């Protein structure tokens, strides 16, 4: 678990990861991230949980057209 947390910390520090946490019921987790799909796929492939075969990531793209004021910098208006 420590290696996974270190992995998360690196990508929070780089600004790619925005929020993360476990799902309820506890069937996995969610990471809200920003970036190009191929770059994100490369990043999640480096997660120690992935290397151990413990998880399989699904990258789901979305276009944030409406956000809370605190997240306005993420909104796509074009």
Description:
By secondary structure, the chain is of the alpha+beta class. It has a single domain (2-74), classed as 2-Layer Sandwich (Alpha-Beta Plaits). Helix content is 32%, strand content 14%. The chain has three helices and two strands. A two-stranded antiparallel ribbon has the order 1-2. The protein is globular and about 40 Å long.
List keywords for this structure.
78 residues, alpha+beta, Alpha-Beta Plaits, two-stranded antiparallel ribbon, Dimeric_a/b-barrel, YCII-related domain-containing protein, YCII
Query: Could you name the CATH topology?
Result: Alpha-Beta Plaits
Roughly what fraction of the amino acids lie in strands? 5-15%
Number of helical segments? 3
Report on the biggest sheet.
2 strands, antiparallel
CATH level 1 name: Alpha Beta
Q: What count of structural domains?
A: 1
CATH architecture: 2-Layer Sandwich
- Structural class from helices and strands? alpha+beta
């Amino acid at each position: 678990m420590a290696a996974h947390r270190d992995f998360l910390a690196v990508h929070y520090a780089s600004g790619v990861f925005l929020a993360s946490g476990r799902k309820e019921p506890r069937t996995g987790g969610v990471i809200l991230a920003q970036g190009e799909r191929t770059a994100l796929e490369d990043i999640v492939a480096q997660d120690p949980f992935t290397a151990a075969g413990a998880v399989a990531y699904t990258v789901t793209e979305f276009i944030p057209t409406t956000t809370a004021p605190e997240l306005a910098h993420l909104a796509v208006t074009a």
